[in-house]
Specification:
There is one protein chain. The radius of gyration is 20 Å and the shape is globular. It has 337 residues and is α/β, with parallel strands linked by helices. The strands form 3 sheets. It has a 5-stranded parallel β-sheet with strand order 8-7-6-9-10, with helices on one face. A 4-stranded parallel β-sheet has the order 3-2-4-5, sandwiched between helices. A two-stranded antiparallel ribbon has the order 1-11. Helix 3 crosses helix 12 (297-315). It folds into 2 domains: 11-134 and 303-328, Aspartate/ornithine carbamoyltransferase (Rossmann fold); 136-298, Aspartate/ornithine carbamoyltransferase (Rossmann fold, 3-Layer(aba) Sandwich), CATH 3.40.50.1370. Strand 4, helix 5 and strand 5 (125-130) form a beta-alpha-beta unit. It contains 12 helices and 11 strands. The structure holds phosphoric acid mono(formamide)ester (CP). Phosphoric acid mono(formamide)ester is lined by residues 55-59, 129, 135, 138, 273-275.
Length: 337
């Protein structure tokens, strides 16, 4: 695809070559993300950051990625701080805000809303999550992480075995990740969820129609014993009609060190898009895994910077100029990476 000037709304717009291109550019962003070098290639550019649902990683890493490329961020969080609370349409909001920004990152609770906004926007829009539909930049950083973790274990993406666990019905990250893994023919996927929270049938069907092995299960222990990656997700309580309904499923699948040791192959990678739910009745990924070197969740979150920097550089067409606007940093940067 031609990235310059285009929206990023769904994983379905990518071919495998496009993903390779994003990952190549992401690799080149490491010196900047790790604060060894600074670049001012986007000096003067403005990111409109519009998050109408809670977010820590996506919102802050999109903003930081833009800052690290030298641009500035104008941030809106929550409906109550915009004129949408006074009845303004997404169309009008998009027309106005795209006059103030060079690119927009947006999260919204309704499926399809970011695409609706993008259709009216005069600048590229990146989907930071639209309801339970998609979260394409998360899937890209997840796959970037998977690639790096399994390469360190002598394996490649084409033979990947992955178990996705938890709320697969409402979890937009796993929807996008399944679509992305569909580009890699030999991938074997095990989907572990309560029956009521299964992966949408059309996503499973698309994977099977393209020759992928997909198993569905309600048994955690049996499903994680022959995989390279366990990708855990939280119950998406904000998508349920009532807390009581979410409580039926919360805590149903808990991975802790004991279960990991007894059932996983050595060096199985543990991932989670975060936030993990650390409340007592949830704990889908227990804190007792924090010292396990195979817990990749914070490396995964760090990779969000690289991938989002790459998306900005590609969309705003400055990939080849990043290094020419760069210099070494002068402040202490040790210890983090
Ligand atoms: N993974 C993710 O989307 O996290 P946030 O909700 O904190 O952005």
């Amino acid at each position: 695809m031609n990235f310059a000037g285009n929206h990023i709304l769904s994983i379905q717009q990518f071919e495998r070559d496009d993903v390779d291109r994003i990952f190549d550019v992401a690799d080149r962003m490491a010196p900047y993300a790790q604060r060894r070098r600074i670049t001012r290639v986007l000096e003067g550019a403005i990111l409109g950051s519009m998050f109408f649902e809670p977010s820590t990683r996506t919102r802050v890493s999109f903003g930081s990625a833009f800052n690290l490329l030298g641009g500035e961020v104008r941030e809106t969080t929550g409906f109550e701080s915009t004129a949408i609370a006074k009845g303004e349409s997404l169309f009008d909001t998009a027309r106005v805000l795209s006059g103030y920004s060079d690119v927009i990152a947006m999260r919204h609770p309704m499926e399809g809303s970011v695409a609706e906004f993008a259709a009216a926007s005069r600048v590229p829009v990146i989907n930071g999550g639209d309801g339970s539909n998609e979260h394409p930049s998360q899937a890209l950083l997840d796959l970037y992480t998977i690639r790096s973790e399994i390469a360190a274990r002598g394996k490649s993406l084409d033979q990947l075995r992955i178990a996705m666990v938890g709320d697969l019905r409402y979890g937009r990250t796993v929807h996008s990740l399944c679509k992305l893994l569909g580009l890699y023919p030999g991938v074997q996927i095990v989907l572990v969820s309560p029956q009521a929270l299964q992966m949408p049938a059309e996503i499973v069907e698309d994977l099977r129609n393209t020759g992928h092995s997909v198993l569905e299960s309600e048994q955690l222990e049996a499903s994680i014993s022959n995989v390279d990656i366990v990708y855990s997700t939280r119950i998406q309580e904000e998508r349920f009609n009532t807390q009581e309904e979410a409580d039926l499923y919360r805590g149903r699948f808990r991975l802790n060190q004991n279960i990991y040791t007894r059932h996983c192959e050595p060096n199985t990678v543990i991932m989670h898009p975060l936030p993990r739910d650390s409340r007592e009745n949830a704990r889908e990924l227990d804190d007792d895994l924090n010292d396990n070197p195979n817990l990749a969740i914070f490396r995964q979150a760090d990779n969000g910077l690289l991938v989002r920097m790459a998306l900005f550089a590609l969309i705003l067409d400055v990939v080849d100029d990043v290094d020419t606007h760069a210099r070494d940093v002068r402040w202490y940067t040790g210890g983090r990476f």
